[in-house]
Amino acid sequence: MDLFNDQPQSQVNLLPKEGTVNYYGTLMTQKEANDYLNKLLETIAWKNDQAVIFGKLIITKRKVAWYGDIPFKYTYSNTTKEALPWTAELIELKNLAEITTGETYNSCLLNLYHDGNEGMAWHSDGEKDLKKNGAIASMSFGAERKFAFKNKTTKETIQVILQNGSLLVMKDETQTHWLHRLPPTKLVSKPRVNLTFRTIVHQD
């Protein structure tokens, strides 16, 4: 990133081509972010994530939760989840994400990483339930973690450190042309909660 660029940080596209990723930095004080972290740890209906790989059920240490405007069904890794009703804190954070980004969201997939040993492998969020080329707003609480992108064709990589109380948005053709991951690290011993606000298209 060009440190001498006159553009506000949130308007700088972290990707050189074929997609748009904007990092807004922190949206609140560290005390506010820590308060949200504690509330999310206490009030969210966390469950160990599941995936069916080559016909075998895999249960991860990482925990997840799925919330939305209505009981949306969301299928990924060959498993399906049904959205729970919003909590008060999630509504507050959804409103903050919408005001900040100028986008709207109707659902949220949450991830709880207990420490740096837990991460996420390279993937893209291209499920058919998601609005195509729609914005995904990723809000982070707790431990700072490195987040990486890799171009599917050129293998070029981009990295950013996600801070406590920060917001990153992926939109346009990012999911078509780029993979992303949260690499594990031995340097982090504290938990991180990640909220990814999304738009599910109409389901019958």
Gap between N and C termini: 43 Å
Mean pLDDT: 91
Number of strands: 13
**Biggest sheet overview:** 7 strands, antiparallel
Global morphology? globular
What fraction of residues sit in β-strands? 35-45%
Q: Give Rg in angstroms.
A: 16 Å
Q: Output the number of helix runs.
A: 3
**Can you tell me the residue ranges where pLDDT is under 50 for at least 5 consecutive residues?**
1-5
Helix fraction, binned, reads 10-25%
Q: Order of strands in the sheet with the most strands?
A: 1-11-8-13-6-3-2
Briefly note the structural class of the backbone.
alpha+beta
- Secondary-structure element string: EHEEEEHEEEEEEHEE
Summarize the structure.
This protein has helices at 30-43, 88-101, 174-177; strands spanning 20-26, 47-53, 56-68, 73-76, 79-82, 107-113, 120-123, 136-142, 145-151, 157-162, 166-171, 178-182, 192-198. It has 204 residues and is of the alpha+beta class.
Features:
13 strands, 204 residues, alpha+beta, seven-stranded antiparallel β-sheet, disordered N terminus
What does this 3D model show about the protein?
- Residues 1-5 have low confidence and may be disordered.
- This protein is an alpha+beta fold and 204 residues long.
- It is globular.
- The protein has helices at residues 30-43, 88-101, 174-177, and strands at 20-26, 47-53, 56-68, 73-76, 79-82, 107-113, 120-123, 136-142, 145-151, 157-162, 166-171, 178-182, 192-198.
- The longest helix is centred in the first third of the chain and has 14 residues, at 30-43.
- The chain has a 7-stranded antiparallel β-sheet with strand order 1-11-8-13-6-3-2. It has a 4-stranded antiparallel β-sheet with strand order 7-12-9-10.
- The chain has 3 helices and 13 strands, in the order E-H-E-E-E-E-H-E-E-E-E-E-E-H-E-E.
